[in-house]
Amino acid sequence: MKEAKQHSVAYNFLMNFILSASQFIFPLITFPYISRVLLAEGSGKITFASSVANYFLMVASLGIPTYGIRACAQVRDDKRQLSKTVHELLFINFATTVLVAVTYVICVLSIPRFRADETLFLINGINIVLNMLGMNWLFQAMEQYDYITVRSLIFKIVSVLLMILLVHQKSDYIIYGAITVFAAVGSNVLNFFRSRHYIEYRWLGNYHIGKHIKPILILFAQSLAVSIYTNLDTVMLGFMKTDVDVGYYNAAVKIKGILLSLVSSLGGVLLPRMSYYAKEKLKTKFMETMSMALNFTMLISLPLAIYFSMFSAECIQFLAGDGYFGAIAAMQIITIAVIPIGLTGILGVQVLTAIEKEKYVLYSVIVGAVLDFALNLLLIPRFGATGAALATTIAEFVVLAVQLLYTRNLMCQIRSQLKWKTYIMLSAIAAIFGYLTQMLQIKSTFLGLVVSAFMFFCIYGVGLLVVKDSFAMEAVRWAKTKLRHS
Question: Coil, helix or strand for 328?
């Protein structure tokens, strides 16, 4: 078996940042093209089908995607124990996948709203089956972020080429739906074969499946609650409004997702490392990593949320076209949700889950889910996509408030190390200069975005250097080192 090389947090962050940047760049390439070809209706059909399929996928996966990272990270130095852990999780995942896949097909064939786009729904169902083979949680636990990044980039490039070659008119939405599924789970087959480098696939015996059930179910309940305010808003829009409304909302959510991929680039690599620190009782390293992650998240999320909320009209016009002006108000609201989502990604997934306190994460998301469901019922009929965006944003801030309550003891210990006041001040100053660029009345939407973004983020970056922010100073030192060696 191959020995898994453990890289530094900085290296893993770099790899995950490249992956996150690709999740930012590729949608910038594909979204303007697809939104203009498929229009709001076609985009809405794809979003609705994938949102429904994601519910079934979530049930099939239970809480394994998160629990698997922690469980495997804790035994990654023992290859035999790691193999047994993976086998046990696969046994559970196989049983749930079979049951869910059969149920999904029955629902698609029997529910009229689903049967209207039967082919598209069945294509999305492939994701449910192939997801089990992927075992992304194993590679994350082994901190193989370079492999994850290269693999994902290859499949993204192939999917873009397929889109350009095959999607040319509104009726091609089914083809595009198939391409998105290929991009999402096509690499899972490769994962299965590569996993043989790290684990054994022979029968080891003496399995203890029962010990995984409780934490998996807790994390599943957490995922279920989270999905209520990440997917249910789209599903409720699909049932209560039209595909056009779903298309508007999808445009706003797509941009929010692009921003979130950058905000969560560091947090995504921390769970295996923080789980290891917690198990080995390395409290100092755990607290240092926690404060670093929170500061980085605030440094990135605050300016991104403010800028894209300010310039939502220009972003929608440039990325989606004139047919999506109904998405502007939704985007202005939902991009603000990037801030609480980024912070709960650290406090909930990376901190509470790492110290095996995932039940508190469950409590927080249940509160948010119930609130979001109630707000959706109240706001969607009257405000459509804008109402769904407002409901989601409020729910995310409530989840953050509850998680801050449960982590207050830890937060008190690192309170002096958090720089949220500095980042808010610098974002406000940058926003003033961004507002001034709007007064220039630049006719070209693209040029206006370039000028405003340059002004906004340059002012923010200079401000970071003036206050000698540790991340900014480290970036300068890294750049100087590279220049000296070039």
Answer: helix
